[in-house]
Amino acid sequence: MKIGISCHHTYGGSGAIAAELGKALASKGHIVHFFSQAAPFRLGAFSRNIFCHEIEVMHYPLFESPFYSLALASKIADIAYYEKLDIVHAHYAIPHALSAMLARQMLEDKCAASTCFKLVTTLHGTDITVVGADRWMQDVVRLAINKSDGVTAVSAWLKEETVRMFSPKKEITVIPNFVDTSLFFRTSKPEIREQLGLGDEKIVIHISNFRPVKCIGDIIRVFYAVSRRTEATLLLVGDGPERSDAEIQVRQLGIVDRVRFLGKLDDIVPLLSLADIMLMPSNAESFGLAALEAMACGVPVVATMAGGFSEFIVPGIHGYLHAPGDIKAMTESALLLLSDQAHWLECSNACVQQAKRYETALLVEHYEAYYAGLLAAS
Ligand code: GMT
Fold first, then answer.
1. Is beta strand 259-263 parallel, antiparallel or unpaired with respect to 277-280?
2. How far is CA 227 from CA 186, 205, 231, 274, in A?
3. Are residue 99 and residue 37 in the same domain, yes or no?
């Protein structure tokens, strides 16, 4: 198949999933064209089957904010026509699905509807729960969903939310996030501990784009309580709008020497490999790719019951789930995992097994079958 993938290039789960999906499809012989503002952060692959189109936006003094969505639509239309794309897969409803929809309209005079690409939209989370919930964005998100030929969501929870908020015309198929366990596994690299100046204390990790939904303040609060009862270091990987406040909070609590802000890093496996637990106290998380990747590296997760975590984290087996904002309960669960080595080991092994159920190869087959079904129906 010839597949176009439109996605955000920035640090975040939807861009990561789009890039990993494209790489996996290309390795199976499909031709993949990426459309994004810059090369997606996880792409980093050489393949004869991958083509990356960075969208050039026209700058003109009259336009205060450049028309990215329109430039994207034009690029998709151009490539879809000349490369005869079968599928354009939009990751995140806005603006990708909408731009692809517009691209299809641009091609109306050039090709018959039956020969034009099928539009698949994958809903990732905040496109529904934050952007879609905005009074002025609701109708545009609804349009993007209803004009797609196929819609997938990354968890049953997100599907339910979408149905509740938008009553979409089409059935939404759940295809969860996935992880390549040949790349995400626990490795022993003692030099990393040394490079980071860590001793043999327990390591707590969090990886995200530091948006409000991630509740970074709760991570600091839980870690503060944990660090009063056991020797531990918190590794914070990523960056975003909540980082500065988190730094101030860490200074005020007097735990600067126990918290490391590492910024955006691509190579996270070595860090996950030395982590004892991951904290994910989000107040809404459609799936939680970072948690799945941590589990693949044998890291139990303390997270919230908000969203899709409960679809792959069984409390007591792979970590613990609590109500958002319940600092006390999250602290106790973190301490339990950090203090009971036998229990930690059981959880760690169970996490590795659970991650294998979300193996990239399995879920990529789901996407391929989904594309094939849409093409066969035309
Ligand atoms: O994190 C976001 O705010 C948006 C989005 C992204 O582009 O990074 O992340 C979402 O998509 C991931 C991949 O499907 C999911 O694993 C994340 O749970 C989801 N984030 C939220 O729902 C907050």
1. unpaired
2. 24, 13, 6, 17
3. yes
Cβ(13) – ligand 1 distance below 6 Å: yes
Cβ–ligand 1 distance for 161 under 6 Å, the answer no
Query: Model confidence over 28-83: pLDDT tens digits?
Result: 999 999 999 998 888 887 899 999 999 988 887 777 777 899 999 999 999 999 99
Structural contact between residues 13 and 289, judged by C-beta atoms closer than 8 angstroms? yes
Quick: pLDDT tens for 271-305: 999 999 999 999 999 999 999 999 999 999 999 99
CATH of the domain at 92: 3.40.50.2000
Nearest one of 324, 315, 327, 311 to 284, comparing CA atoms: 324
Q: Which atom of ligand 1 is least distant from the CA of 292?
A: 16
Q: Which of 10, 41, 91, 124 to mutate to test the pocket of ligand 1 (most atoms within 8 A of CB)?
A: 124
59: which DSSP letter? P
The pLDDT of residue 266 is 86
Tell which one of 287, 312, 363, 366 to mutate to probe ligand 1, the residue whose CB is within 8 A of the most ligand atoms.
Answer: 287
Asked if residue 149 and residue 53 are part of one domain, the reply reads yes
Residue pair 106/73 in contact (Cβ under 8 Å)? The answer is yes
Give the pLDDT confidence score for residue 46 in this predicted structure: 80
Per-residue confidence (pLDDT) for residue 92, from 0 to 100: 92
| Nearest ligand 1 atom, CA 155 | 14
127 with 142, same domain?
Answer: yes
- CA 288 – ligand 1 centroid, Å: 7
**R_g of the chain, CA atoms, integer Å:** 21
Q: Could you give phi then psi for residue 212, rounded to 5 degrees?
A: -55, -35
- pLDDT score, position 42: 85
Establish if 141 belongs to a structural domain: yes
The CA 128 to ligand 1 mean position distance, Å, reads 10
pLDDT band, residue 210 (cuts 50/70/90) = very high
Task: State the average pLDDT over residues 190-215.
Answer: 94
Ligand 1 centroid from CA 130, angstroms: 11
Domain range for 341 is: 190-356
Residue 114 has pLDDT above 80, yes or no: no
> Do residues 346 and 365 share a domain?
no
Specify the range with the lowest mean pLDDT, choosing from 131-145, 215-229, 352-366: 131-145
